[in-house]
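Per-record layout

source: Nocardioides scoriae
name: ADP-ribose pyrophosphatase YjhB, NUDIX family
length: 278
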Amino acid sequence: MVLRDGELLLSRLAPYLSESPRWTLPGGGIDFGEHPRDAVVREVHEETGLDVTVSDEAWIDSARRHATVSDTDMHSVRIVYEGWVAPDAPEPRVVEVDGSTVDAAWHPLADVVSGRVETVPMVRWALDQHATARLQRVAAYALVVRTHDGADEVLLTRNSARGPHPGRWALPGGGVDHGEPPARTVARELREETGLDGEVGRLVGVHDEHFTGTAPSGREEDFHGVQLLFEVTATGDPEVRDTDGTTDAAAWVPVEQVRSGALEVAELVRTALDHRAR
């Protein structure tokens, strides 16, 4: 079951299985010797053309039905995994020809739940099992301010399409690795996101944010971020070196432009500037 931004990825059953347009979760039979998780990845690609990452845990569903095509009494045991695809993944399309599905599409959850989209019973059952993944993350960020032509400027980075809130500007920084001192995190992330080396100073404050959204991996998450804000001294022209990451631009921005609201910035930027002014 793949969810993204309030939509559910579904495959439409072939006419020989359902005369009316009827949708189901992408998936299929497990080949001999194949791990169920590998089967899901394979089947999702065959039915939607998308590369999916699946969870370690699964739900088990059991259903008995009469197959009219073969006039057979069937008992199916279904293993359902939660999955996610990259936020910039292409539109779904059927790769496997002559299979049991003939179309693939994202459908609004509201349409699925209301019945405006006709689905097999397993779809509603899987949605009832779903709970948004919870993640708490400790991160450290660099507040770098310089005076240029008589005006204060702050070093900011812009979230890419793979990051949370694409297009929003934030401070350079990121998650603290296990066992890593936060001050070292700041220096490492500053270098990775802007190409600049900085001298890490005092802790100027702590900020936190809590929201539900799509993670860089594509997974829907109930996210709580605890953010440590460090004062850092650095000079030079920033340059994004990791072009496939969650940052697509870095620049010195006038502090006045941030405070005026002329630029979309993360709340932690204003929090850091307020702490610095105290």
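summary: DSSP finds six helices and 13 strands in the chain. The chain has two domains: 3-129, 133-277.
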